[in-house]
Specification:
By secondary structure, the chain is of the alpha/beta class. The chain has one domain: TIM Barrel (Alpha-Beta Barrel), CATH 3.20.20.150. Helix 4 links the parallel strand 4 and strand 5. It starts with 18 loop residues before the first strand and ends in a 15-residue tail after the last strand.
Length: about 270
């Protein structure tokens, strides 16, 4: 795995407004330990906050009511948001926007219950794959979920993959997302991979995606345009999308997904 650059306060770009944290910042360790590290990190990083903390699949362990209770007891002012295929007691099969079947509703029922218990009203998941359904079918799938559940279910766009064709992985598909009338999340590091692959940086499209009221969250990290490495960003590694990020919708939550974990995790693996 690509290691993260050392954080340097002299070269750091500060984004106006608070950037919320995710457990992806400290991957490979239990959720509680990751949140404890987040609490310590925001003392060093004034642009970071933990009014919201996103619980990500990079963390070790299962998300259940016991974990949510422990997190809320220790951090009562924080809203904890579940993201993507975090592991649940009902199983480990990833749920995507393109997933279908009775088992999907079992997962979404659990995500809804835990989301409401955590003090948050939104859950975001990845878009999925073209071998499961078409792009319009996936949009309709997410649209129906948002009618059936008492939480917002937002879909996150992806990027080109070699082994499997991801949905929302081209600029044309991101344009379609803009007009799909469903809640969504934009990962700007994913867009960098799309831009590198297609050799285009359509700033107006990105601006429109971020300022839409359907854009519920933005994920921040850097990469080399080929691998979603979750590297930190700085003025020395200034991303092309910085000039439009302030166009974002006022109710959109911005999350940091930088990998700040440099030591061995609890399993003794380098991460």
């Amino acid at each position: 795995m690509i290691s993260s650059p050392v954080y340097d306060t002299n070269t750091r770009t500060t984004l106006p407004g608070s950037i919320q944290c995710t457990t992806a910042m400290f991957p490979g360790i239990p959720f509680l330990a990751a949140v404890d590290r987040i609490a310590a990190k925001i003392e060093e990083r004034p642009e970071l906050a933990m009014d919201w903390v996103q619980l990500c699949p990079q963390s070790y362990g299962v998300v259940d009511e016991g974990l949510i209770t422990s997190l809320k007891h220790q951090y009562p002012r924080t809203k904890f948001q579940l993201h993507s295929n975090v592991r649940l007691c009902c199983g480990k099969t990833p749920v995507h926007g393109s997933s279908q079947g009775e088992w999907v509703h079992e997962y979404l029922d659990t995500f809804e219950r835990l989301t409401l218990r955590s003090g948050c009203g939104i859950y975001s998941l990845h878009s999925g794959y073209a071998d499961e359904m078409s792009l319009p079918e996936m949009f309709e799938n997410v649209r129906q979920w948002n009618k059936q559940y008492d939480i917002i279910i937002a879909v996150e766009g992806l990027y080109p993959e070699r082994r499997r064709q991801a949905l929302i992985s081209t600029w044309a598909e991101y344009e379609a997302l803009l007009h799909a009338d469903i809640p969504y999340a934009i990962d700007l590091s994913h867009l960098h991979i799309v831009a590198t692959t297609e050799r285009k940086r359509p700033l107006q499209l990105v601006r429109d995606l971020l300022r839409s009221p359907h854009c519920r969250e933005i994920h921040l990290s850097a990469n080399n345009g080929r691998v979603d490495a979750h590297q930190p960003w700085s003025d020395s590694n200034r991303e092309w999308w910085w000039e439009v990020i302030n166009a974002r919708h006022s109710e959109c939550v911005v999350f940091c997904e930088e990998n700040l974990q440099t030591r061995r995790n609890h399993l003794g693996r380098h991460i």
